[in-house]
Amino acid sequence: MSSIAPLDPPARLLMGPGPISAYPSVLRAMSSPLVGQYDPFMTDAMADTQRLYRQVWATENEQTFLVDGTSRAGIEAAITSLVRPGERVLVPVFGRFGHLLAEIAERALAEVHTIEVPWGQVVPASAIEEAIVRVRPTLLALVQGDTSTTMNQPLDEIGAICEKHGVLFYSDATASLGGNDFEADAWGLDAATAGLQKCLGGPSGSSPITLSDRAVEVIRSRGRVEAGIREEGDESASDFIRTNYFDLGMIIDYWGPRRLNHHTEATSMLYAAREAAAVLLNEGRDAVIARHRLAGDAMLAGVRGLGLGVFGDVAHKMNNVVAVEIPEGLAGDAARQAMLDDFGIEIGTSFGPLHGRVWRIGTMGYNARRDAVLTTLAALEHVLRRFGAKVPQGGGVEGALDVYGAAV
Amino acid sequence: MSSIAPLDPPARLLMGPGPISAYPSVLRAMSSPLVGQYDPFMTDAMADTQRLYRQVWATENEQTFLVDGTSRAGIEAAITSLVRPGERVLVPVFGRFGHLLAEIAERALAEVHTIEVPWGQVVPASAIEEAIVRVRPTLLALVQGDTSTTMNQPLDEIGAICEKHGVLFYSDATASLGGNDFEADAWGLDAATAGLQKCLGGPSGSSPITLSDRAVEVIRSRGRVEAGIREEGDESASDFIRTNYFDLGMIIDYWGPRRLNHHTEATSMLYAAREAAAVLLNEGRDAVIARHRLAGDAMLAGVRGLGLGVFGDVAHKMNNVVAVEIPEGLAGDAARQAMLDDFGIEIGTSFGPLHGRVWRIGTMGYNARRDAVLTTLAALEHVLRRFGAKVPQGGGVEGALDVYGAAV
Description:
The structure is a homodimer. By secondary structure, the first copy, chain A, is α/β, with parallel strands linked by helices. The first copy, chain A, has two domains: 22-281, Type I PLP-dependent aspartate aminotransferase-like (Major domain) (Aspartate Aminotransferase, domain 2, 3-Layer(aba) Sandwich), CATH 3.40.640; 285-407, Aspartate Aminotransferase, domain 1 (Alpha-Beta Complex), CATH 3.90.1150.10. Chain A has 13 helices and 13 strands. In chain A, the strands form four sheets. Chain A has a seven-stranded mixed β-sheet with strand order 2-10-9-8-5-3-4, with helices on both faces. A two-stranded parallel sheet of chain A has the order 1-12. A two-stranded antiparallel ribbon of chain A has the order 6-7. In chain A, α2 packs across α9 (267-283), α10 (285-305) packs antiparallel against α13 (395-407) and α11 packs across α12. The mean pLDDT of chain A is 96. Chains A and B meet through α1, α2, α3, α4 and α9 of A and α1, α2, α3, α4 and α9 of B.
């Protein structure tokens, strides 16, 4: 019998909208030996991870931890734990991931109201306030960075509006956290979730979350301790959360001093999440965001230097991704494939109304790097020319170098 | 500013009820570089992983894949996708994890019926059939191996009973798969889920699942494609599954040829899951189960050789864990702590009615090994004596060696 060989992934420079190449130290961390789930080393590592993520989120929230699943798991845990069936949720939609928040709220049997702006724009704070007044939702669920359009929704005025109207404020920061400003406390967030596979430079599979005291109060009011570990004095609310795995109250009790048995912590993913935060904080949170801004500006200048158009309101673009218009008549998918086959570089396709119209090029996490930006632009120049586009010789690399030069 | 050091886990031999020390090659696999989620390498790795797990489960089920979360995520995905609110679920309870299945079904608003046997016993097939006739459930949810009691529930007669009465048959094989017989097709399972952190020798965080055609039919009848990626012709059932993340229909379409965007696959956990299956299949599924049986028999003989009692119906014990009675008057938790502090060996405490009465000692996955068994017994002898128990000198190691010797 021939033996099954280990996987041997090809070399890839992941310059799409995510997932992206993880930091080497994050990959190494996942090879660390396992320990028991109540080993003092493990519980210390969990507490340490909470402490680090408070800094990543810029929050004092005690309830800052990981949900064991992909970024989508964090979103579902937040919405399902915060919203009772029949309650109203307002979702401003400016791309694919607004639809996802609405979808998840619908699955939780919320009454979902959306407002939409055209793809490529963000939602004005005034429009959000108007809709809040009209809809009177329990929760506002708002994407920060939507990779489908590259837009970075301003959040800094939204918390005050929510507080004024007694609305819980949740944001999905999956694509933006770590590469763009995010101030959980200063902006008045009640809940925010993310993933590792974008600017945090880790693999998908762990979702950092932070919850305000007000959010915890709502979750606690729906508390239920599961049969099998329930003790006298543990009461269950009748409007309990309709999921065990995503019941944030139980997850809080698992991470907290009671250490009540819930799931078995995904140890290797915890190691990854902890190291991703350590990388970010060792370099400095503001420095990492500045590195993303610089790489994003350089990539933007580079694609423009190649004569390519850019989709959307660039003033509100995320630092970490740009939507590049595919030249008229050029075979976009074949060109993307050539980038992968000939250069080992992945750039992204796009969803819905933008499918076939733009490529999405990311510069995030480990790959928010000068050499990654320049290499991608050099390869793109060759591929564009081969596929029939007229491109200025060296225009991409030079455009990016101008930005990097100016920054020195 | 002092820098945050990488985690440096202590050396631990994990001989508890799980999680246990992962196979070294599984740890190494997680350090492999990431690739994009639609990279041909990635989609091939996903298809390959499905093929390997069909062999692990002993099934021809096309729908065999991973749920991105811990073993509990797989349980919730199975139950929530298979059972509509108000439908009846029958859960035979013979330990803590039966309560968990009941709890998860209650969260899904099923009408849950349980039958119970005392801890340390398994449930007779006749009692299950009697309850099925009485309750007329949609689903029978039955744990195979419950680490809380160490019992291994016989499943081989249950599928035929379920088929006779038109009941879907789901089993939670988290603690047993890979170390005990499991025959998904031959035993008539409609759904089964597991985790990596027990006999499969990986970290927690990925849940293998397999679904029969009958189960897929139920799931498909509740189909809903999410807004944002919905296309013409995609219809939504009114009794749609009340979760997006655990909607197995969507996860099937993500793993299947449509590759419809759902979550972003947890690539490093996929690598781990794939390598755990490869390790098992390279050694041979039956050989691995036999190795678990041998290690379990040796550990059982060893603890008896130390004069310790064993809890429960040993004829129905799982291969991979034994519940060892703590000698009268001995400080069980302090002794367990001494095992960890002085020898780096973790053995398990216990839940509920057994708390303080037994330790649970596991021999699973990578640690279903002769040296791990003997080392644990040698250390346990010393600790028992130090804590005041009278133990036969060398009785543990010799008891185990007799079993290993007889097997050569």
